[in-house]
Specification:
Oligomer: heterodimer
CATH architecture of the largest domain in chain A: Orthogonal Bundle
Largest interface: A-B, 25 and 33 residues
Helix content of chain B: 25-40%
Radius of gyration of chain A: 25 Å
Strand content of chain A: under 5%
CATH superfamily of the largest domain in chain B: P-loop containing nucleotide triphosphate hydrolases
CATH superfamily of the largest domain in chain A: MetI-like
Number of strands of chain B: 21
CATH topology of the largest domain in chain A: MetI-like fold
Number of helices of chain A: 15
CATH architecture of the largest domain in chain B: 3-Layer(aba) Sandwich
Largest sheet of chain B: 6 strands, mixed
Strand order of the largest sheet of chain B: 6-7-8-3-9-10
Number of strands of chain A: 0
């Protein structure tokens, strides 16, 4: 229990202001989730009428029934998993060794190479040149193209490079004296010491891949290769355009709103499941005890 | 067992020469301590021997092999780092075994060797712990275990005790000494702490500004420093250095300090400087204290630091700070009345005022 007597009036005021701000921020972040979930379980009529605020109105599972019976939903779900897992692995394969190399003082031309990587963060080719490039590489409408085309991200490289640079040099030196080569230094010392940073960029990669929408829409034309986010978009536009669907809506227990919300809920679940598992690697002070400065 | 030889060893960073063509021969089994102030090049020298720092000039020989172009892992040396550099994600046993596993030592042998080292260092109960769960002294021992488990030709220590508190430091000092006695491996030890150097070394190498000032056994350095730098570095507290003018006769020279006269040992060098200024060096422990009126040199007592069996008297001799170290037992009741001291002329060093080099071979 906190002993309030130990705090001055200013401290108390500060604590209260901070608590209020955190509370407001939490509510603002949490509410859209609750709202979407509530909509997905409401009847189409209630959702359309804007009656849903916090809890489902006229609870029904119709929206879920509608999407779960569609084979395209399951196909796009599978594709999203492939893009996310494949893409994240591919990213780590490029980012970790790249960041390690860029972090080593003995790398020849290190400053220039670092600048080169950072450059791509501020400037890139833009939509059409990139599209043409992918076309020339025969990577249009290709699952592999999606996986490899966005594997390297300068921001993640720089993030991890900075972390590697913060690891005391004596770790590398000790490993070298122990007989480790470059690869072993990276694999047996730097990667285990960098778990928090690697967990962070893994999460970044997973989230970016999972939500990856724009380039998948631009580059993929086959229905059987699209990820969930693109399927979601197709569904939204289909439902809104579909006159027949609009006609049936009055009686139907679902609507464009509830179906969209249901797809969103389905697409959020895996990320929600993965996050706590990754979070345990966000250990603070992993270096604690290894060196004493 | 191998010695280590440095010939004309140079380290340059751009135009800055941090190690200036040093020569040193470390005998097999010997424990040599490189000591000097921060930035004197001692750690750089050690790192060049380890192979962690490129050699700008000269040669490093380990055993009978020039190792300038040999990778650190192939030099068969082991190093204990100042910050230990223990792998925090591995437990004590795995930390010690790391080098063996990298070198593909058979599993049962690794286990045996780790157990043996743990036994020597008293780490057996802690083999399953992570470095974070160990005390400073235990971490230090793990760092040493990692070095000794490989049975290297040479041990390198880079200020290994500087992160420990005073009590632990003296314990570990003794432990390193015992370990060296037991393993008898050629060791090169870097420190800025002259007490560590004095207690551990077979021979001490005093470095300053990238060059070696003097090499010798601890007592040689203590009794016969070749210059004012070594005199001021070795010994605790260091040698008192006072500016004085030489007068008297060549057979019986005296140093004129203010208006007081201090008899000096006769030598040709000193006689040559008749009438000139020199630096006179007197070890604090060589000054014998007296009460007023009985002695040749009067001092003004400013402060008494009692250390237990000894006391440091901070005095002023002709307006220059002068420290006297004395046993407390016989003088305790009269310590605060000390006002003069005498010193055996043979224990006095005379240094050139400009070069700082010792004059004559007085007291040798």
């Amino acid at each position: 229990m906190m002993n309030w007597n130990l705090y001055s009036r200013g401290d108390k005021f500060f604590a209260i202001v901070v608590s209020v701000l955190v509370g407001m921020f939490t509510a603002a972040t949490l509410y859209p989730f609750i709202y979407i979930a509530a909509v997905s379980f409401s009847s189409g009529f209630a959702a359309q009428a804007g009656k849903v605020v916090l809890t489902p109105i006229d609870s029904t599972l119709e929206a879920y029934k509608y999407i779960l019976i569609q084979p395209e939903f399951w196909l796009s779900y599978r594709n999203t998993f492939i893009y996310t897992i494949g893409g994240t692995i591919m990213s780590l394969l490029f980012i970790i060794p790249g960041a390690y190399a860029l972090s080593r003082p003995q790398l020849y031309g290190r400053r220039f190479l670092n600048l080169f990587v950072a450059f791509t963060m501020w400037f890139n080719a833009g939509l059409i040149p990139f599209y043409l490039n992918m076309r020339d590489l025969n990577l249009l409408d290709s699952m592999f193209g999606i996986i490899i085309g966005f594997a390297v991200n300068a921001f993640n490289i720089i993030l991890l490079r900075n972390f590697f640079e913060s690891i005391p040099e004596s770790f590398e030196e000790a490993a070298r004296m122990d007989g480790a080569n470059d690869f072993q230094v990276l694999w047996k010392v730097f990667i285990p010491l960098s778990k928090p940073a690697i967990a962070t960029i893994t999460l970044f990669c997973i989230v970016a891949r999972w939500n990856g929408f724009f380039w998948a829409m631009v580059l993929l034309s086959s229905e059987e290769k699209i990820p969930l986010q693109v399927f979601l978009r197709h569904t939204i536009s289909n439902l809104s355009d579909d006159d027949e669907f609009a006609m049936t809506q009055l009686e139907a227990a679902y609507s464009a709103e509830t179906v969209t919300a249901a797809i969103i809920v389905c697409s959020i679940i895996p990320v929600l499941l993965v996050y706590p598992w990754i979070q345990k690697y966000f250990e603070k002070g992993i270096l604690l005890g290894g060196v004493k400065e | 067992m191998s010695g280590v030889k440095l010939s004309q060893l140079v380290k340059r960073y751009g135009d800055l020469e941090v190690v200036k063509a040093i020569d040193l021969e470390v005998q097999p089994h010997e424990f040599v301590v490189l000591v000097g102030p921060s930035g004197c090049g001692k750690s750089t020298t050690l790192r060049m021997i380890a192979g962690l720092e490129e050699i700008s000039g000269g040669e490093v020989t380990i055993g009978d092999r020039v190792v300038n172009r040999v990778a650190p892992k192939d030099r068969d040396v082991a190093m204990v780092f100042q910050n230990y550099a223990l792998y925090p994600h591995l437990n004590v046993a795995d930390n010690i075994a790391f080098g063996l596993r990298i070198r593909k030592t058979p599993k049962d042998q690794v286990q045996k060797m780790v157990a043996e080292v743990a036994e020597i260092l008293g780490l057996t109960p802690y083999l399953d712990r992570r470095p974070a769960d160990l005390s400073g002294g235990q971490r230090q021992r793990v760092a040493m275990g990692r070095a000794i488990v490989r049975h290297p030709l040479v041990f390198l220590f880079d200020e290994p005790l500087s992160n420990l508190d005073a009590k632990l430091r003296s314990q570990m000092r003794a432990e390193i000494k015992r370990l060296h006695k037991r393993l008898d491996v050629t060791s090169i030890y870097v420190t800025h702490d002259q007490v560590e150097a004095m207690t551990l070394a077979d021979r001490i190498v005093v470095m300053n500004d990238g060059a070696i000032e003097q090499v010798g056994t601890p007592m040689e350095l203590f009794l016969n420093p070749v210059n004012t730098f070594v005199a001021g570095f070795i010994g605790s507290p260091p040698m008192n250095q006072i500016r004085a003018e030489i007068s008297g006769s060549s057979n019986a020279p005296v140093a004129k300090i203010g208006d007081q006269l201090l008899p000096l040992p006769a030598s040709a060098d000193v006689a040559d400087r008749m009438g000139a200024d020199v630096t006179v060096g007197i070890r604090p422990e060589h000054a014998e204290v007296h009460s007023l009126g009985t002695s040749p040199l009067n001092v003004e007592l400013e402060l008494v630091e009692t250390l237990g069996s000894e006391a440091l008297l901070h005095t002023k001799l002709a307006d220059t700070p002068f420290i006297i170290k004395t046993e407390t037992e016989e003088h305790f009741s009269t310590l605060d009345q000390v006002s003069a001291f005498s010193v055996n002329p043979h224990q006095i060093k005379v240094f050139d005022i400009d070069t700082g080099r010792v004059l004559g071979q007085a007291g040798a």
